[in-house]
Amino acid sequence: MYALYKRLSEEDFSFAYLDNFTDKATDALVSIQDARINPDKAARRKIRYLVTECFQNVIRHSQPKYNSFDKLFAVRSKGNHHAVVSINPVDQRKVNELGASIDSLKKLSEKELKAVYLDALQGKGFNKSGGAGLGLIEMARKSKKVPNYTFHRVDNDTSEFQFELAFHTQKTGVNDVFDIDTTEFYHYLKSNKVLILQKGQFSQDVVMSLFELLEGSLKNNIDSSAVSQKLYLVIELLQNMSNYSLETAKGKSGIFQIKLGENGETIFETGNYLSNTEADNFNSHLNELKNLGKIELLKRYNKELRKGLKENDKPNAGIGIMEMLKLTQGNLDYHIEPIDDKKSFIVLTATVK
Amino acid sequence: MMVKENLIYEGTRSTPQVELNPETGKFRIEGRSIPENAFEFYKPVMEWLIEYNKTPNVETHLEIYLEYINSGSLKQLFRIIYVLEDALEMGNESYVTWFYRKGDELMLQKGLEFQQFLDIPIQLKEI
After folding, report:
1. What CATH number did the domain enclosing B97 receive?
2. Among A210, A207, A187, A166, which residue's Cα sits nearest to residue A78?
3. Closest of B76, B33, B10, B105 to residue A239, by C-alpha
4. I need a surface site. Which of A47, A231, B59, B102 has the fewest CB within 10 A?
5. Nearest C-alpha of chain A: how many angstroms from B103?
6. Residue A189: pLDDT band by 50, 70, 90 thresholds?
7. pLDDT tens readout for residues A318-329
8. Are A317 and B113 in contact (CB < 8 Å)?
9. Whether complex ipTM tops 0.90
């Protein structure tokens, strides 16, 4: 995971959402963007619009599932350069029409785009496939760029449609090429069975928005008894990362992903820099706890709960790691990558069945 | 100084609705309790309760109904219930009802643990 974090290190924000998403996630997705882009209102409006439009397009125009991990929605930012990316299966019969629609936008000036947009609003022009035409024109207008796209034939009836909208929120001299291109990024996510990935700063607002996104997603996909346990684990991992992450030039940055294991188990992972002192403390604390039996762990938990009860001084929460150990039935692992004499990178992996 | 005022907090996306009524001795904490700093959030609640406990109602009943919780909040709730136990020692009646949604094994588990660790009567109620 450290290797991926390093490859994404120039990106201020990277987000990928795969597979079983529905339009119910729109609000939470927008809320994640709002939480991270502050206080630039114009940038926020633009990103909010393009994220919503692109996300709903994927849902509206996807073919039925042909394979697992066949849908991707991603948002990436590097300074004021942003990209909204989607991959989804489309009906092979619509490929030519869709490609022609996007190509036709390439030749148009801003004024002409506006005229085509007004025509499309009235149901004229190429707005024949529901919202697609209108949505595409508006995306091109707002981003001031025509989206890039490719089709990969999957079978006789289906093609994989890769759509990428790159834009700036302010004029900038920043190199707008991402170190990992969309194809490689998607390949990593798909081959590792990643359901969701986010890299960036994890403020409380960002944590809450991500939490709400996962809440909606988990409620759609798994039985309710497991939802609160998984969400509890998510909040513990994210807040743990937010608390212990080392302040770097790009703030308290970290990476979080949820993926599926070989046997269908769900794997939650966080990665972040932390001081070597914290790394040593964590190392000995977790090892000590992992050596406790179930009853001993419960006794220790009770003891930790009682710490600082009579005093008014700030108690160390202290029980977070124990809660994670209990929830994962001991399947809480970590890897510490030494970086230099001050900091390390820690990856925490929590697995639940 | 005796506590006279109700303590009321509206719920937010990360903190619960809190209602503490000194007249009736009925207290309720409901919603999500996943703040970044649970100690800071529950500090005024603790201070209020410590003051209340100097002249508690004959009967104090705390209802807890939480949708989501984090470990920091669990620790603070433990402290709150622990403070309510003091009312028992003064000969007053004090008890807790811990609600959990049907099928929510996590909140049931947390209620059972609190039952095991604390002396105050804690009734678990599925809703």
Report:
1. 3.30.750.24
2. A166
3. B33
4. B102
5. 5
6. very high
7. 789 999 999 999
8. no
9. yes
Q: Do B34 and A224 touch (CB under 8 A)?
A: no
Task: Give all strands (DSSP E) within chain A, no chain letters.
Answer: 13-18, 72-78, 81-91, 148-153, 158-168, 194-201, 253-260, 266-275, 332-338, 343-352
* A157 shares a domain with A22: yes
Q: In 10 A of CB A316, how many CB atoms?
A: 12
Instruction: Give yes or no for A26 touching B (CB within 8 A).
Output: no
A172 and A242 inside one domain: no
Closest C-alpha to A353, from A333, A319, A327: A327
> Rounded mean pLDDT of A287-299?
90
Which range of residues forms the domain containing residue B84? 7-126
B39 lies in a domain?
Answer: yes
Domain CATH number, residue A344 = 3.30.565
User: Is residue A36 a part of any domain in this protein?
Assistant: yes
Q: Domain of residue A252: give its range.
A: 222-353
The pLDDT tens digits for B66-94 are 999 999 999 999 999 999 988 788 788 99
For the sheet with B93-100, list strands across it. B7-9, B17-21, B26-33, B59-69, B93-100, B122-126
Residue in A195, A240, A242 with CA at minimum distance from that of residue A68: A195
Establish if B71 touches chain A: CB-CB under 8 angstroms: yes
Q: Is A223 on the interface with B (CB under 8 A)?
A: yes
Give the chain A residue nearest B80 (alpha carbons): A309
Q: Is residue A186 part of a domain?
A: yes
Domain assignment of residue A8, yes or no: no
Please list every residue in chain A whose beta carbon sits closer than 8 Å to the beta carbon of residue B69: 232
Rounded CA-CA distance B52/B56 in Å is: 6
Number of domains comprising chain A: 2
